[in-house]
Amino acid sequence: MNDACEYFSGVCCLLFRLMKGEGVLNLSATNTYSMHIVKPETLSSQISKVILSEIQSGQFAVGDRLLPEAELAQKYGVSRTVLREAIASLKNEDILESKPGRGIIVKNTRSQQAFRFSDIFETISIDEANHFYEMRAILESEAAVLAASRHTQEEMDKISNAFIAMQDAVMKNQNGNAEHELFNRSIAEASHNPLLIEFLKFLDAKLHDLALKLSINTMASPGRAYIVLEEHRQILKSITAHNKVDSHKAVLTHLNNDAIRAGLEIFDRKV
Q1: Distant-in-sequence, close-in-space partners of 43: CB < 8 Å, separation ≥ 6
Q2: Helix (H, G, I), strand (E, B) or coil at 242
């Protein structure tokens, strides 16, 4: 039991670190991971921490309005672009919100960044990256199982259309990233589990750049793109047939192959 708890704790640590944008996987042009993870402290991140500190110290209460953008940028001595990035980060944390006619308003004083593990680990090891990919495989495969048993015809049409769009992109030698994201999102929505839908949506938003790089790498050549497309065809076929077992297997097969293409090893590796 202790080993299981430690394993799951490690997975959660990595997930939350990546969700907070605190680690960036370096991907080489040869389609392999460089397992050195950098964690730069951007200027916008520093400014968001300053604003959050001011809010939590009581300088601002819920409902209070921040200074106009130009004045805030001058106050902190940064460009408006940097400030916007900092504000966007705090909006994503559900701390700030924009209201028409009022500007930027304090929505909450408590940050979701209570789950910040960057102070514990300074780098992401190969094992941690494998843990993350395993967690992704677990979540997406279970979403497919639920989608296979719960989807409506309208939802199935949306999944099918997303696959057709992916297929068209491959035929035109395009990367198909947006189409791929729509395919995954449509499956999650067909699960009819609001928590799973929101969690996968949250992950997708936080890991957009990483997912983009992975998609480019795993579909870098026409031959490989068709292999990836065929894996998605099997997922589509299984969900359409309401076959939960095959849906689960199809997603795990795809993500296991995807992990191998990315230089990772999941499930079969020794721990």
Answers
A1: 78, 82
A2: coil
What would the pLDDT profile of 145-189 be if each residue is shown by its tens digit? 999 999 999 999 999 999 999 999 989 888 787 888 899 999 999
CB atoms within 10 A of CB 10: 17
Tens-place pLDDT, residues 245-260: 999 999 999 988 888 8
Q: Distance between CA atoms of 266 and 207, rounded to whole angstroms?
A: 19
Residue 177 is encoded by which pair of tokens?
A: 């990233």
Of the candidates 11, 32, 35, the residue with the CA atom closest to the CA atom of residue 23: 35
- Beta-carbon-side half-sphere exposure of residue 45 (alpha carbons within 13 Å): 8
- Chain length of the chain: 271
Read off the amino acid at residue 54.
Answer: E
* Helix, strand or coil, per DSSP, at residue 35: strand
User: 10 Å Cβ neighbour count for 66?
Assistant: 19
Tokens of 145: 């199982």
* The one-letter amino acid at 152: T
Backbone angles phi, psi at 138, to 5 degrees: -65, -50
Structure tokens given for 99: 């209201």
Is pTM beyond 0.70 here?
A: no
Asked whether the CA dihedral 34, 39, 44, 45 is positive or negative, the reply is: positive
